[in-house]
């Protein structure tokens, strides 16, 4: 799924889609998409149950590599409706939020 498709999906306001950022906290704080929840790839093995396996899920990272790995991991744990945002945040043209904390 391209970053433009993800941006359109977020703008649609659909509540049946979850967006997960798998970058590390420091990367996330530098700039993230408002509608996206952070679960770093390094924590995914112990936190994957926080992600609803029956809901459509879009995985996001910096370049698309870690989010692809996250999709593969989640698929091996029964998640079926997975999308990787190709090109990651490097291709994102929409607004981002920066955390100062």
From TrEMBL:
<dbReference type="InterPro" id="IPR001763">
    <property type="entry name" value="Rhodanese-like_dom"/>
</dbReference>
<dbReference type="Pfam" id="PF00581">
    <property type="entry name" value="Rhodanese"/>
</dbReference>
<dbReference type="InterPro" id="IPR036873">
    <property type="entry name" value="Rhodanese-like_dom_sf"/>
</dbReference>
<feature type="domain" description="Rhodanese">
    <location>
        <begin position="13"/>
        <end position="101"/>
    </location>
</feature>
<protein>
    <submittedName>
        <fullName>Rhodanese-like domain-containing protein</fullName>
    </submittedName>
</protein>
<dbReference type="InterPro" id="IPR050229">
    <property type="entry name" value="GlpE_sulfurtransferase"/>
</dbReference>
